[in-house]
Amino acid sequence: MKEELLQEIREYAQKKYKEEQEHNIKMDKIKTLSNDKNEKEYLYLSNEKPVSTGCPNYKIKKIFYDTFKSRIYKIGKDETNKIFVETGTFMDGPKDYILGHQSILVNRNDPRADYRTYRDLEQVEEITVPIKQCDDFEKNNNIIETDYYDARDLYYQIRYQFITDMLENSQKESKDNIVKIYVRKK
Q1: pLDDT (tens digit, 9 = 90+) per residue, 159-175?
Q2: DSSP-based three-state secondary structure for 37
């Protein structure tokens, strides 16, 4: 993603986190002043309700990640860090008049395979690559191989880790961390 967009997301998340912290300070004041009904400040602040409690580090990461998800459409396909999670290898199944085209999940190395699907950590859509083009695609990108049955959960887990790591580190450092942990070198 472009550095400007990443900076915008960071600033927005910091702003939301600061607002939440200020709100919680007000709530602490309300608790302190609630014993003295004559205090004008108590009356002014009494309209406030607590936002939430919990780990501040988790909260800022959640705000940051949610902000990223709301702006993901601004990231062009050629602006990503090219980290893909493999979500399955398939062969074309029978064409049924009622059900239409059906795909059959096969082993990664199955000679009957027709295509593989991948998801970029910074994009919404899944992409389909014909099996004959997979080697070139995998050479030019960072591929995280998964067991298909946990691919969806693992995709979101890695994506969260990658995006929230960018809150404190540069994109390159975050990418390097993910590649070091998950990408198997060939």
Answers
A1: 888 888 888 888 899 89
A2: coil
Distance of CA 117 to the CA centre of its chain: 18
Residue 101 CA to residue 123 CA, distance in Å, equals 25
Contact 51, 59 (CB under 8 A): no
CB-CB contact of 129 with 137 (8 Å): yes
The CA distance from 182 to 158, in Å, is 9
CA distances (Å), 59 to each of 54, 56, 69, 130, in order? 7, 5, 15, 41
CA dihedral (59, 63, 64, 69) positive or negative: positive
- Residue found under tokens 């609630």: 34
Question: Secondary structure of 66-121 in the HEC alphabet?
Answer: HHHHHHHHHCCHHHCCCEEEEEEEEEEEEEECCCEEEEEEECCCCCCCCEEEEEEC
pTM of the complete model: 0.69
pLDDT, averaged per 10 consecutive residues of the chain (186 residues), comes to: 79 83 79 63 54 61 81 82 90 69 82 92 90 94 81 85 86 90 76
